[in-house]
Amino acid sequence: MRYRTRTYRKVTVLAAVAALAGGLLAGCAEDKEDPGASSGGGGGDGGGGKTTLTVGVFGAFGLQEAGLYKEYEKLHPDISIKQNSVQRNENYWPALLTHLSSGSGLSDIQAVEVGNIAELTTSHADKLVDLGKADGVDKNDFLDWKWRQGTSKGGKTIGLGTDIGPTGICYRKDLFEKAGLPTDREAVGKLWAGDWQKYLAAGKRYQKKAPDGTSFVDGATGVMAAVHASGKEKFYDKGGELIYKDSPTVKEGWDLAAQFAESGLSAKLQQFQPSWDQAISNGSFATLTCPPWMLGYIKDKAGDKGEDKWDVAASPKPGNWGGSFLTVPEAGKNKEEATKLAAWLTEPEQLAKLFDERASFPSADAAYALPEVKDAKNPYFGNAPVGKIFSKAAEGVPVQPIGPKDGIISQYLADTGMLGVDQKGTAPDEAWNKAVKTIDNALDQ
Protein backbone atom coordinates (compact mmCIF):
# COMPACT_ATOMS: atom_id res chain seq x y z
CA MET A 1 0.00 0.00 0.00
CA ARG A 2 1.38 3.39 -0.76
CA TYR A 3 0.37 7.00 -0.97
CA ARG A 4 2.94 9.15 -2.68
CA THR A 5 3.27 12.77 -1.61
CA ARG A 6 5.63 15.64 -2.15
CA THR A 7 8.53 16.32 0.20
CA TYR A 8 7.81 17.01 3.85
CA ARG A 9 9.08 20.54 3.26
CA LYS A 10 6.95 21.05 0.17
CA VAL A 11 4.18 18.68 1.17
CA THR A 12 1.05 18.85 -0.98
CA VAL A 13 -0.88 15.78 -1.83
CA LEU A 14 -0.73 15.19 -5.54
CA ALA A 15 -3.23 12.41 -6.06
CA ALA A 16 -6.31 10.74 -4.68
CA VAL A 17 -6.18 7.27 -3.22
CA ALA A 18 -7.73 4.46 -5.21
CA ALA A 19 -8.66 1.03 -3.92
CA LEU A 20 -6.34 -1.90 -4.56
CA ALA A 21 -6.72 -5.52 -3.48
CA GLY A 22 -5.24 -5.60 -0.02
CA GLY A 23 -4.13 -1.98 -0.22
CA LEU A 24 -4.33 1.41 -1.89
CA LEU A 25 -2.40 3.21 -4.53
CA ALA A 26 -2.15 6.85 -5.39
CA GLY A 27 -3.61 8.14 -8.62
CA CYS A 28 -1.80 9.73 -11.50
CA ALA A 29 -2.74 12.19 -14.20
CA GLU A 30 -2.06 9.83 -17.08
CA ASP A 31 -4.07 6.61 -17.25
CA LYS A 32 -3.55 4.09 -20.03
CA GLU A 33 -4.96 0.58 -20.02
CA ASP A 34 -1.54 -0.82 -20.87
CA PRO A 35 1.57 -0.73 -18.64
CA GLY A 36 3.78 -0.73 -21.72
CA ALA A 37 4.25 2.00 -24.27
CA SER A 38 1.08 3.30 -25.89
CA SER A 39 2.20 2.05 -29.28
CA GLY A 40 2.79 -1.49 -28.09
CA GLY A 41 5.91 -1.52 -26.00
CA GLY A 42 9.61 -1.04 -25.89
CA GLY A 43 11.91 1.79 -26.69
CA GLY A 44 13.71 2.61 -29.87
CA ASP A 45 15.14 5.52 -31.76
CA GLY A 46 13.91 8.65 -30.04
CA GLY A 47 15.07 10.87 -32.88
CA GLY A 48 18.38 12.63 -33.29
CA GLY A 49 20.23 9.37 -32.67
CA LYS A 50 18.82 9.03 -29.16
CA THR A 51 17.60 5.77 -27.64
CA THR A 52 14.20 6.10 -26.01
CA LEU A 53 13.76 4.06 -22.85
CA THR A 54 10.22 3.50 -21.65
CA VAL A 55 9.33 3.07 -17.98
CA GLY A 56 5.97 1.54 -17.07
CA VAL A 57 4.61 2.57 -13.67
CA PHE A 58 1.36 2.72 -11.71
CA GLY A 59 0.07 5.69 -9.77
CA ALA A 60 2.09 8.82 -9.07
CA PHE A 61 5.23 6.73 -8.78
CA GLY A 62 7.55 9.66 -8.08
CA LEU A 63 10.59 9.05 -10.27
CA GLN A 64 9.50 11.51 -12.92
CA GLU A 65 8.05 13.97 -10.40
CA ALA A 66 11.34 14.01 -8.46
CA GLY A 67 13.23 15.00 -11.61
CA LEU A 68 15.30 11.83 -11.80
CA TYR A 69 14.58 11.14 -15.47
CA LYS A 70 15.74 14.62 -16.47
CA GLU A 71 18.88 14.23 -14.38
CA TYR A 72 19.71 10.92 -16.07
CA GLU A 73 19.10 12.40 -19.51
CA LYS A 74 21.57 15.20 -18.72
CA LEU A 75 24.16 12.62 -17.69
CA HIS A 76 23.40 10.54 -20.81
CA PRO A 77 22.60 12.86 -23.75
CA ASP A 78 22.03 9.85 -26.01
CA ILE A 79 19.12 8.63 -23.84
CA SER A 80 15.53 9.86 -23.80
CA ILE A 81 13.10 8.55 -21.16
CA LYS A 82 9.37 8.20 -21.60
CA GLN A 83 7.09 7.17 -18.74
CA ASN A 84 3.90 5.17 -19.33
CA SER A 85 1.59 5.37 -16.32
CA VAL A 86 -1.56 3.49 -15.37
CA GLN A 87 -3.54 5.06 -12.55
CA ARG A 88 -4.47 1.90 -10.66
CA ASN A 89 -2.34 -1.13 -9.99
CA GLU A 90 -5.40 -3.36 -10.30
CA ASN A 91 -5.42 -2.43 -14.00
CA TYR A 92 -1.65 -2.24 -14.42
CA TRP A 93 -0.76 -5.62 -12.94
CA PRO A 94 -2.98 -7.98 -15.00
CA ALA A 95 -1.88 -6.24 -18.19
CA LEU A 96 1.77 -6.60 -17.19
CA LEU A 97 1.33 -10.35 -16.62
CA THR A 98 -0.31 -10.67 -20.03
CA HIS A 99 2.56 -8.86 -21.73
CA LEU A 100 5.19 -10.89 -19.88
CA SER A 101 3.52 -14.08 -21.06
CA SER A 102 3.38 -12.93 -24.68
CA GLY A 103 6.77 -11.21 -24.66
CA SER A 104 5.34 -8.11 -26.30
CA GLY A 105 3.85 -4.76 -25.34
CA LEU A 106 6.37 -4.25 -22.54
CA SER A 107 8.14 -1.13 -21.38
CA ASP A 108 11.92 -1.34 -21.07
CA ILE A 109 11.52 -1.02 -17.30
CA GLN A 110 8.41 -2.16 -15.43
CA ALA A 111 7.59 -1.14 -11.87
CA VAL A 112 6.11 -3.79 -9.58
CA GLU A 113 4.25 -3.28 -6.29
CA VAL A 114 5.48 -5.25 -3.27
CA GLY A 115 2.25 -7.24 -3.09
CA ASN A 116 2.91 -8.62 -6.57
CA ILE A 117 6.66 -9.22 -6.50
CA ALA A 118 6.37 -12.79 -5.15
CA GLU A 119 4.33 -13.86 -8.16
CA LEU A 120 7.20 -12.75 -10.39
CA THR A 121 9.97 -14.35 -8.34
CA THR A 122 8.10 -17.66 -8.12
CA SER A 123 6.53 -17.92 -11.58
CA HIS A 124 8.08 -15.45 -14.02
CA ALA A 125 11.73 -14.99 -13.02
CA ASP A 126 12.86 -16.42 -16.35
CA LYS A 127 11.17 -13.54 -18.16
CA LEU A 128 13.13 -10.87 -16.30
CA VAL A 129 16.77 -9.75 -16.29
CA ASP A 130 18.97 -10.65 -13.31
CA LEU A 131 19.61 -7.15 -11.99
CA GLY A 132 21.73 -8.47 -9.14
CA LYS A 133 24.51 -8.98 -11.70
CA ALA A 134 24.22 -5.50 -13.21
CA ASP A 135 27.18 -3.13 -13.08
CA GLY A 136 26.87 -0.69 -10.19
CA VAL A 137 24.38 -2.77 -8.24
CA ASP A 138 25.60 -3.67 -4.75
CA LYS A 139 23.47 -6.03 -2.68
CA ASN A 140 25.02 -4.55 0.46
CA ASP A 141 23.49 -1.15 -0.31
CA PHE A 142 19.99 -2.55 0.25
CA LEU A 143 18.10 -3.74 3.28
CA ASP A 144 18.46 -7.52 3.43
CA TRP A 145 14.73 -8.18 3.64
CA LYS A 146 14.00 -5.91 0.68
CA TRP A 147 16.68 -7.57 -1.45
CA ARG A 148 15.26 -11.00 -0.64
CA GLN A 149 11.77 -9.93 -1.67
CA GLY A 150 13.02 -9.26 -5.20
CA THR A 151 15.08 -12.47 -5.43
CA SER A 152 13.89 -15.90 -6.59
CA LYS A 153 14.62 -19.18 -4.79
CA GLY A 154 17.28 -19.79 -7.40
CA GLY A 155 19.08 -16.60 -6.42
CA LYS A 156 18.05 -14.46 -9.39
CA THR A 157 17.35 -10.87 -8.34
CA ILE A 158 14.68 -9.66 -10.75
CA GLY A 159 13.59 -6.56 -8.82
CA LEU A 160 15.58 -3.65 -7.39
CA GLY A 161 13.78 -1.90 -4.56
CA THR A 162 12.74 1.73 -4.86
CA ASP A 163 10.81 2.51 -1.69
CA ILE A 164 9.56 0.82 1.47
CA GLY A 165 7.03 1.64 4.18
CA PRO A 166 8.58 1.10 7.65
CA THR A 167 5.93 1.72 10.29
CA GLY A 168 5.64 3.97 13.31
CA ILE A 169 2.63 5.10 15.32
CA CYS A 170 1.20 8.54 14.59
CA TYR A 171 -0.63 10.01 17.58
CA ARG A 172 -2.52 13.12 18.61
CA LYS A 173 -0.58 14.94 21.34
CA ASP A 174 -3.57 17.01 22.37
CA LEU A 175 -5.77 13.94 22.89
CA PHE A 176 -3.02 12.10 24.77
CA GLU A 177 -2.59 15.08 27.10
CA LYS A 178 -6.32 15.27 27.84
CA ALA A 179 -6.36 11.52 28.55
CA GLY A 180 -3.44 11.81 30.98
CA LEU A 181 -0.90 10.04 28.76
CA PRO A 182 2.61 11.33 27.99
CA THR A 183 3.02 13.40 24.85
CA ASP A 184 6.80 13.31 24.30
CA ARG A 185 7.52 10.92 21.43
CA GLU A 186 10.23 9.03 23.32
CA ALA A 187 7.96 8.53 26.32
CA VAL A 188 5.06 7.54 24.09
CA GLY A 189 7.20 4.93 22.36
CA LYS A 190 8.12 3.47 25.74
CA LEU A 191 4.45 2.93 26.55
CA TRP A 192 4.29 0.02 24.14
CA ALA A 193 7.90 -0.77 23.24
CA GLY A 194 8.37 -4.33 22.01
CA ASP A 195 4.88 -5.64 22.72
CA TRP A 196 1.54 -5.18 20.96
CA GLN A 197 -0.27 -6.07 24.19
CA LYS A 198 1.26 -2.92 25.69
CA TYR A 199 -0.35 -0.97 22.88
CA LEU A 200 -3.70 -2.43 23.96
CA ALA A 201 -2.92 -1.53 27.57
CA ALA A 202 -2.15 2.05 26.55
CA GLY A 203 -5.49 2.14 24.78
CA LYS A 204 -7.30 1.06 27.92
CA ARG A 205 -5.49 3.81 29.88
CA TYR A 206 -6.56 6.29 27.23
CA GLN A 207 -10.14 5.11 27.36
CA LYS A 208 -10.49 5.90 31.08
CA LYS A 209 -10.13 9.64 30.42
CA ALA A 210 -10.74 9.77 26.69
CA PRO A 211 -11.97 13.13 25.38
CA ASP A 212 -15.63 12.91 24.40
CA GLY A 213 -16.27 11.45 20.98
CA THR A 214 -12.77 10.02 20.51
CA SER A 215 -11.34 6.51 20.28
CA PHE A 216 -7.81 5.20 20.73
CA VAL A 217 -7.40 3.68 17.24
CA ASP A 218 -9.06 4.29 13.89
CA GLY A 219 -10.17 0.71 13.38
CA ALA A 220 -9.43 -2.90 14.27
CA THR A 221 -8.40 -3.83 10.72
CA GLY A 222 -5.50 -1.37 10.85
CA VAL A 223 -4.28 -2.88 14.11
CA MET A 224 -4.47 -6.38 12.63
CA ALA A 225 -2.50 -5.40 9.54
CA ALA A 226 0.20 -3.73 11.65
CA VAL A 227 0.68 -6.84 13.78
CA HIS A 228 0.75 -9.07 10.70
CA ALA A 229 3.45 -6.91 9.13
CA SER A 230 5.68 -7.21 12.19
CA GLY A 231 5.95 -11.01 12.36
CA LYS A 232 8.60 -13.30 10.92
CA GLU A 233 6.02 -15.33 8.98
CA LYS A 234 2.54 -14.27 7.98
CA PHE A 235 0.58 -16.04 5.28
CA TYR A 236 3.36 -18.21 3.82
CA ASP A 237 6.35 -19.96 5.36
CA LYS A 238 9.93 -19.80 4.09
CA GLY A 239 9.29 -22.78 1.86
CA GLY A 240 6.42 -21.02 0.10
CA GLU A 241 3.70 -23.10 1.77
CA LEU A 242 0.41 -21.42 2.68
CA ILE A 243 0.18 -21.28 6.49
CA TYR A 244 -2.17 -18.40 7.28
CA LYS A 245 -4.68 -20.58 9.13
CA ASP A 246 -2.05 -21.75 11.64
CA SER A 247 0.35 -18.78 11.58
CA PRO A 248 1.16 -17.47 15.10
CA THR A 249 1.52 -13.98 13.64
CA VAL A 250 -1.88 -14.12 11.97
CA LYS A 251 -3.46 -15.43 15.17
CA GLU A 252 -1.82 -12.70 17.25
CA GLY A 253 -3.02 -10.00 14.88
CA TRP A 254 -6.54 -11.38 14.70
CA ASP A 255 -6.91 -11.82 18.47
CA LEU A 256 -5.43 -8.42 19.31
CA ALA A 257 -7.60 -6.61 16.76
CA ALA A 258 -10.68 -8.37 18.11
CA GLN A 259 -9.76 -7.21 21.62
CA PHE A 260 -9.51 -3.62 20.40
CA ALA A 261 -12.94 -3.94 18.79
CA GLU A 262 -14.63 -5.62 21.72
CA SER A 263 -13.06 -3.28 24.30
CA GLY A 264 -14.49 -0.20 22.62
CA LEU A 265 -11.09 1.22 21.71
CA SER A 266 -11.82 1.39 17.98
CA ALA A 267 -13.54 4.15 16.03
CA LYS A 268 -14.83 1.33 13.79
CA LEU A 269 -13.54 2.99 10.63
CA GLN A 270 -12.42 1.47 7.33
CA GLN A 271 -9.22 3.05 6.11
CA PHE A 272 -9.16 5.33 3.05
CA GLN A 273 -12.92 5.81 3.05
CA PRO A 274 -14.53 9.27 3.30
CA SER A 275 -15.58 8.66 6.90
CA TRP A 276 -11.97 7.84 7.80
CA ASP A 277 -10.73 10.98 6.10
CA GLN A 278 -13.31 13.03 8.00
CA ALA A 279 -12.27 11.44 11.30
CA ILE A 280 -8.66 12.47 10.68
CA SER A 281 -9.88 15.99 10.01
CA ASN A 282 -12.01 16.04 13.16
CA GLY A 283 -9.43 14.43 15.45
CA SER A 284 -11.79 11.57 16.27
CA PHE A 285 -9.09 8.99 17.07
CA ALA A 286 -5.77 9.21 18.87
CA THR A 287 -3.42 6.76 17.13
CA LEU A 288 -2.78 5.31 13.70
CA THR A 289 -0.16 2.95 12.30
CA CYS A 290 1.83 5.02 9.83
CA PRO A 291 4.66 4.53 7.36
CA PRO A 292 6.42 7.69 6.06
CA TRP A 293 3.91 8.29 3.27
CA MET A 294 1.02 8.38 5.75
CA LEU A 295 2.34 11.59 7.28
CA GLY A 296 1.58 13.48 4.10
CA TYR A 297 -1.87 11.93 3.95
CA ILE A 298 -2.64 13.01 7.52
CA LYS A 299 -1.46 16.54 6.79
CA ASP A 300 -3.69 16.73 3.75
CA LYS A 301 -6.78 15.53 5.62
CA ALA A 302 -6.20 17.29 8.96
CA GLY A 303 -5.16 20.58 7.38
CA ASP A 304 -3.84 23.63 9.19
CA LYS A 305 -5.88 22.92 12.31
CA GLY A 306 -3.99 19.67 12.83
CA GLU A 307 -0.50 21.16 12.65
CA ASP A 308 1.65 20.34 15.69
CA LYS A 309 -1.19 18.30 17.19
CA TRP A 310 0.13 15.13 15.54
CA ASP A 311 3.46 13.47 16.28
CA VAL A 312 5.06 10.13 15.46
CA ALA A 313 6.65 7.55 17.78
CA ALA A 314 8.17 4.12 17.30
CA SER A 315 5.79 1.23 16.72
CA PRO A 316 5.60 -1.63 19.28
CA LYS A 317 7.31 -3.77 16.65
CA PRO A 318 8.34 -2.44 13.23
CA GLY A 319 6.72 -3.76 10.10
CA ASN A 320 6.51 -2.72 6.48
CA TRP A 321 3.50 -1.21 4.72
CA GLY A 322 4.07 -0.62 1.03
CA GLY A 323 6.94 -0.32 -1.41
CA SER A 324 7.88 -1.17 -4.98
CA PHE A 325 10.54 -2.53 -7.33
CA LEU A 326 11.93 -1.91 -10.80
CA THR A 327 12.28 -4.84 -13.19
CA VAL A 328 13.69 -5.20 -16.71
CA PRO A 329 11.87 -7.66 -19.02
CA GLU A 330 14.03 -10.04 -21.04
CA ALA A 331 11.83 -9.31 -24.06
CA GLY A 332 12.62 -5.60 -23.92
CA LYS A 333 14.27 -3.98 -26.94
CA ASN A 334 16.85 -2.08 -24.90
CA LYS A 335 17.80 -4.44 -22.08
CA GLU A 336 21.36 -3.20 -21.64
CA GLU A 337 20.47 0.48 -21.41
CA ALA A 338 17.34 -0.25 -19.36
CA THR A 339 19.42 -2.21 -16.86
CA LYS A 340 21.80 0.73 -16.50
CA LEU A 341 18.89 3.08 -15.88
CA ALA A 342 17.21 0.77 -13.33
CA ALA A 343 20.52 0.41 -11.49
CA TRP A 344 21.05 4.18 -11.42
CA LEU A 345 17.49 4.98 -10.29
CA THR A 346 17.88 2.66 -7.29
CA GLU A 347 21.30 3.88 -6.17
CA PRO A 348 21.30 5.31 -2.61
CA GLU A 349 21.84 8.86 -3.85
CA GLN A 350 18.81 8.78 -6.14
CA LEU A 351 16.61 7.10 -3.53
CA ALA A 352 17.59 9.80 -1.02
CA LYS A 353 16.47 12.44 -3.51
CA LEU A 354 13.23 10.55 -4.06
CA PHE A 355 12.58 10.63 -0.31
CA ASP A 356 13.41 14.33 -0.12
CA GLU A 357 11.04 15.16 -2.96
CA ARG A 358 8.30 12.55 -2.57
CA ALA A 359 8.51 11.09 0.97
CA SER A 360 9.17 7.64 -0.53
CA PHE A 361 11.43 5.99 2.03
CA PRO A 362 14.57 4.39 0.52
CA SER A 363 14.96 0.64 0.08
CA ALA A 364 18.72 1.14 0.26
CA ASP A 365 19.90 1.56 3.84
CA ALA A 366 23.10 3.02 2.43
CA ALA A 367 20.96 6.13 1.85
CA TYR A 368 20.18 6.57 5.54
CA ALA A 369 23.48 8.33 6.26
CA LEU A 370 22.87 10.88 3.52
CA PRO A 371 21.65 14.31 4.69
CA GLU A 372 18.34 14.11 2.78
CA VAL A 373 17.39 11.18 5.01
CA LYS A 374 19.50 11.52 8.15
CA ASP A 375 18.53 15.14 8.80
CA ALA A 376 14.92 14.96 7.62
CA LYS A 377 12.38 16.51 9.98
CA ASN A 378 8.65 17.05 9.62
CA PRO A 379 7.51 20.46 10.90
CA TYR A 380 3.83 19.53 10.74
CA PHE A 381 4.50 16.68 13.19
CA GLY A 382 6.28 18.78 15.80
CA ASN A 383 9.55 18.74 13.84
CA ALA A 384 9.75 14.99 14.34
CA PRO A 385 13.09 13.54 13.14
CA VAL A 386 11.38 11.30 10.62
CA GLY A 387 14.60 10.28 8.90
CA LYS A 388 15.98 8.78 12.09
CA ILE A 389 12.66 7.32 13.26
CA PHE A 390 11.90 5.49 10.05
CA SER A 391 15.52 4.47 9.39
CA LYS A 392 15.54 2.66 12.72
CA ALA A 393 12.18 1.07 11.95
CA ALA A 394 13.34 -0.03 8.50
CA GLU A 395 16.36 -1.82 9.93
CA GLY A 396 14.10 -3.69 12.37
CA VAL A 397 11.57 -4.96 9.82
CA PRO A 398 11.57 -8.79 9.83
CA VAL A 399 12.58 -10.79 6.77
CA GLN A 400 9.02 -11.92 6.09
CA PRO A 401 8.20 -14.34 3.25
CA ILE A 402 5.78 -12.86 0.73
CA GLY A 403 3.52 -15.21 -1.19
CA PRO A 404 1.77 -14.75 -4.53
CA LYS A 405 -1.66 -14.38 -2.91
CA ASP A 406 -0.76 -12.16 0.04
CA GLY A 407 -3.00 -9.36 -1.22
CA ILE A 408 -6.08 -11.56 -1.52
CA ILE A 409 -5.61 -13.07 1.93
CA SER A 410 -5.02 -9.70 3.54
CA GLN A 411 -8.06 -8.19 1.88
CA TYR A 412 -10.49 -10.88 2.95
CA LEU A 413 -9.17 -11.17 6.49
CA ALA A 414 -9.87 -7.47 6.81
CA ASP A 415 -13.00 -6.81 4.76
CA THR A 416 -14.84 -10.12 5.13
CA GLY A 417 -13.52 -10.90 8.61
CA MET A 418 -12.32 -8.28 11.07
CA LEU A 419 -14.46 -5.46 9.69
CA GLY A 420 -17.52 -7.46 10.73
CA VAL A 421 -16.19 -7.82 14.27
CA ASP A 422 -15.44 -4.12 14.44
CA GLN A 423 -18.51 -2.62 12.81
CA LYS A 424 -21.25 -5.23 13.28
CA GLY A 425 -20.24 -6.94 16.49
CA THR A 426 -19.83 -10.32 14.77
CA ALA A 427 -18.24 -12.91 17.06
CA PRO A 428 -14.51 -13.27 16.24
CA ASP A 429 -14.78 -17.04 15.62
CA GLU A 430 -17.73 -16.59 13.28
CA ALA A 431 -15.96 -13.81 11.41
CA TRP A 432 -12.79 -15.89 11.12
CA ASN A 433 -14.64 -18.85 9.64
CA LYS A 434 -16.36 -16.59 7.14
CA ALA A 435 -13.07 -15.02 6.09
CA VAL A 436 -11.35 -18.40 5.75
CA LYS A 437 -14.17 -19.75 3.58
CA THR A 438 -13.96 -16.70 1.30
CA ILE A 439 -10.17 -16.95 1.07
CA ASP A 440 -10.22 -20.66 0.29
CA ASN A 441 -12.80 -20.12 -2.43
CA ALA A 442 -10.70 -17.35 -3.93
CA LEU A 443 -7.59 -19.53 -3.84
CA ASP A 444 -9.46 -22.66 -4.96
CA GLN A 445 -8.36 -24.51 -1.85
Automatic annotation (TrEMBL):
Under the heading InterPro entries, the entry gives: Bact_solute-bd_prot1, SBP
Q: What Pfam families does the record point to?
A: SBP_bac_8 (PF13416)
Keywords, sorted A to Z: Signal
The answer, when asked if Signal is one of the entry's keywords, is yes
Signal peptide range equals 1-26
Alphabetical list of Gene3D superfamilies matching this protein: Periplasmic binding protein-like II (3.40.190.10)
Quote the PANTHER family the UniProt record gives: ARABINOSE-BINDING PROTEIN-RELATED (PTHR43649), SUGAR BINDING SECRETED PROTEIN (PTHR43649:SF32)
The protein in question is named Extracellular solute-binding protein
Taxonomic lineage: Bacteria, Bacillati, Actinomycetota, Actinomycetes, Kitasatosporales
